[in-house]
Amino acid sequence: MTHSFRKSLPTRREMLTQSANGFGMLALSAMLADEAKADVKLNAPIQDPLAPKAPQFPAKAKRVIFLFMHGGPSQVDTFDYKPLLERDDGKPLPFNKPRVVSGQTGNLLKSPWSFKQHGQSGAWASELFPEIASHADDICFIKSMYGSNSRHGGALLELHTGSDTFVRPSMGSWVTYGLGTENRNLPGFITVCPTLSHGAENNFSSAFLPAIYQGTPVGNAGTPSDKAKIPFITGDTPTQLQRMEIDFFNRMNRERLQVTGPDNGLEGRIDSFELAFRMQATAPQLQDLSNETPLTQKLYGLDDPATANYGRQCLMARRFAEAGVRFIQISHSYKWDQHGNLRKDHAKNAREVDRPIAGLLYDLKQRGLLEDTLVWWGGEFGRTPTAQGGDGRDHNPHGFTMWLAGGGIKPGISYGATDDYGYYSVENKVHFHDLHATILHQLGLDHEKLTYKHAGRNFRLTDVHGRVVREILA
Amino acid sequence: MNFGTSLLLLIVLFLFAGPVRAVDFEKDIAPLLIEHCLECHQPNKKSGGLDLTSIAMMKAGGDQGTALIFGKPKESLMIQRIELGEMPPKEGKGLKAVASADLLKLKEWISEGAKWPANRALGIHEKKVDLKVARDFWSFQKVKRPAVPIVMHPSRVSNPIDSFIINKLEANKLSLSQPASKGNLLRRVSLGVRGLPPTLEEQDRFLKDQNHDSYASLVERFLGDPAHGEKWARHWLDLVRYADSNGYERDAAKPSVWKYRDYVIAAFNNDKPYDRFVLEQLAGDELSEPSFETMVATGFHALGTWQDEVDPLEAAQYRADEVDDLIRTTSQTFLGLTLGCARCHNHKFDPLTMVDYYSLGAIFSPLKRPSQGRTDVDVPFGNLGKLYRLVESSAKPNPTHLLLSGRASNLGPEMKPQVPAVLAPQQPAFPEKGKQTSERRLALAQWLIQQDNPLVARVIVNRVWQQHFGVGLVATSSDFGQMGARPTHPELLDWLAHWFVNDAKWSLKELHRLILLSETYRQDSSYKEAAALVDPENKLLWRFPYKRLDIESIRDSMLSVSGNLNKAMQGPGVFLPVPDVVIEAHTDKQAAWKAESGSAINRRTIYAFVKRTLTLPLLETFDFCDTTQSSEKRSSTNVAPQALTLFNSEFVNHQAEQLAFRLEGEFKNDSRLQIEMVFRLCLARPPAESEKVAMLLFLQKEAKVLQPDAAKVPSSAEHRALVQACRVMLNLNEFLYPN
Known about the structure:
The complex is a heterodimer.
Chain A (H helix, E strand, L loop, with lengths): L11 H9 L14 H4 L24 E7 L13 H5 L27 E4 L4 E4 L3 H4 L5 E8 L5 H10 L9 H9 L9 E4 L23 E3 L20 H22 L3 H24 L6 H6 L5 H18 L4 E6 L9 H25 L6 E6 L3 E6 L5 E4 L3 E6 L7 E3 L1 E2 L6 E3 L2 E2 H11 L9 E3 L2 E3 L15
Parallel strand pairs in A: 1-7, 1-8, 4-12, 4-15, 5-6, 5-7
Antiparallel strand pairs in A: 2-3, 4-11, 8-11, 9-10, 13-14, 16-17
Chain B lengths: L2 H14 L8 H12 L18 H6 L16 H7 L16 H12 L19 H4 L25 H12 L10 H13 L5 H9 L5 H11 L2 H13 L18 H12 L4 H10 L8 H6 L17 H21 L18 H11 L14 E2 L5 E2 L12 E4 L7 E5 L24 H9 L7 H14 L20 H13 L5 H9 L2 H4 L6 H6 L16 H12 L17 H5 L4 H4 L24 H5 L18 H9 L1 H17 L4 H13 L5 H17 L11 H15 L1 H4 L3
Antiparallel strand pairs in B: 1-2, 3-4
Helix pairs in contact in B: 2-5, 8-10, 11-12, 13-17, 15-16, 18-19, 18-20, 23-28, 28-29, 28-31, 30-31
């Protein structure tokens, strides 16, 4: 999809002149200008805050698709193979556990699933993810992830915003703030079926960044993905009548502008109604998957009731990515929290996402989109190698696996390691802050320079932390 | 050589032979290391692997080896790096180079064997600020009343506000715009004072009133309307992070928190003097005669988020976060200072230190939440009823400590209660112990409302100004520090602050009156090209600024014009209807949100239950504040989702339909009269002829396209066209941006 943009925006004065001359060329004016912040920047020309911006340095990735596995998938049952865990099943952990979180864990519990190596790279994966494993050579597994919070709420906030205590802008908001959006008919940050618990909207809020950077939710975790919509995207009014209504609305507003004189807020508001009108057409079109070929639908698992729900999310993600949305999150809702029923539920969860995700990777690659789309998979933490009951594992933020693919990340490698039992991250540790810094880096943004002044100081996604993990960059 | 000359010689020798006393670690070395090195070389940061907070770590050195060699300054790496000008780094940190005299001392100290007192660890919190210099900053200086300037064209001066504003305009060869029309002024002042549009009766009365003081009496009527408190209380609730639930995972309801909201509304309606208002909220329980009302006021402290389930090992840190919330909210709300920035290190820009932060913390840390397990509870007050607040259980609380790097596990020295040093050449007296409570908050509150506090009055008059004009005289209304904006009209700000305390006796209604009766407020809002060229941002106020109504005023206005507004006051928060999808995924849907029905849902927006994890979509899209922290100003965006909300939400459509019924009830089938009325209701003015024609045409065209809908009552196409026209009226720019 191609878009044309005006590279340089008119100064306020130019804009005022234009509008005084009959309201021409205002579509890109400061329609979304945030007056609250504009006050501080005295005479800076008012610019459209969503206009696409050049990255701070050449970028490898243009957009991010985050496949969020809410609840905390177990590393030792998926991608972090631990022979000693298998050998010492039922024995006590030979070193100290960290503090207990939701309950006591007992002795070591081996993975009920068998592991084998895949592809040229020989990456390990369990039989839970046969399809994703077949793309091992496109993937960079980070096996040494760690976070600071062992509760869902705190861990989700840390994962999404970099802070587990305060309300801070979500990563997608920072990215949109840094790069703007490529499609003027859509928001720059979309989150499909986001969770309504564990911090809920704080996970996709723009906090103190202007509200235009906040994630636009499409449905929520309780909505089946075929019912997921942008709030109020459809009404009872047929399009033809709505067009008449907006024309009437424009006429009244513009007539009034002749009396009051030009004004950014007033003119921007007229434009926002036009954008909303276009969004009403564009967003449902993008969400309408019926014009995808049966082959593609099958690729994403739409033909199987078990995979159809997440498959639709993955396919929507590809379509949003193609359309130029900057940051797309698709959540596999709060399902991965197996304090018990590990065998049954982890298997069920994996089954629901394996084929859709593999389909997405395949599809992005064949369309040439994987090159500049960074796909990111993972949960808010991992799970303990020690058992809860006979068939469960507790939360474990001390060591777990996430993976990246595309977007200039080295394919077919594993980076970092946990200890012999998969409890603690020990080698080449990667904190959330480091991962955030790395993802921003791939988008051409320096995490130390992407700042926003609020309450008297400059804030950034990584606070005072973060290291770009250069070892995994292609 | 006699005794005299030899003494003289001795003195000369003394003067030229350099220091005779040995280098003193505490006097000479510690401050130097703290000032120049510790920012980076401390346990938390360890730049280059180096930590300079103890002699052992200094000796151990960093990535490049040991930092010093006893007795050999020239061979010590730290000296070498300083002499090469590499340390402290010139860029980024704002650190000053080491003065040559200091460098000499440092070398001398190393020569003498680098003596370091046993167990002495340096800390970044010991960094001092030069208070004498700091107090020169404009906002820390005492408020003095400046002379009211003389203007060239005094005909438009109705009170000193105008003199200050016109004076500055004249200096820029500008002037006030002509007075606004009576209709525009009526709608402006009605929305500004009450958050509601003028009714048809109010319009008739004012427009027909030919008395010279008709406007002054209008202002009196509106200030006396209980709706005034409902409008202005909301601004205060934003500042004090008000919500009806605790946030976090369970987000349970705060029991009687709404009594605090009603207290604020009543305080504004009764014109409670601001100094008293401050006193009651901070220390209503510590007054000599606390009443139910003053106890409710202290609910102020309890409004923050509350995590009802904390990992026991995280408890101390979480407790520190709770106190942090109190420090931040109090310092931002009353003082306009971002003291919260001094939690882990001294404030980067303002003369606020970690000691200031934790000393204020010592005032609040005795407050505890009287919860029962995970359940948040009310506290009884005698037999007068229950209320929601934090409590202090001891007259002599446990000691409070500074937390190194802000970490609860990292206890620093004990802190006594104190107010920020830069603001108080003399600290107020904090009692050693109180009667039932520590009475530290009482001392704090009394210090805040003393006449010579430089910030409290400036900050509140600026907040009131901001609400009336969209932007404060200081644009950053909760940051009066270095990084905040400077006042556009410093003399006016000081005049107002001084007048507010000394003449108006802290009466907010007096302040409103003064502003509302000024010509500056009463001028027209139209664009003037010549003025816009000189002052495009309208900082000098050559016109009344356009600003979008906040969501409360938008929703309340819609209810008002549709004739549905339920004016009932007070009581627990109302659960407004929300779209199903919003609550769908809450595990406990029923418990999460029990939407009410009937006329309760037509109450003013301030009475809507504010649940922290479930913001009403209508409020959220229209820039409702972040309820987890003090918010000084709403954003004012025009994002497309707002348009979607206004066009497609059930609420707006319902009000449009109700408005159409109202018009039809009044003027059955006469479109012209209906149009007259809808303009007066929505915009407090009659339609222009061209507007009337446009709407008539729209109604006819729509009615042609629309088919009668048998499913609806009434089914006629004309009715449905009128509903759509009403929806456009409720969406017009002029409806949301009053003139």
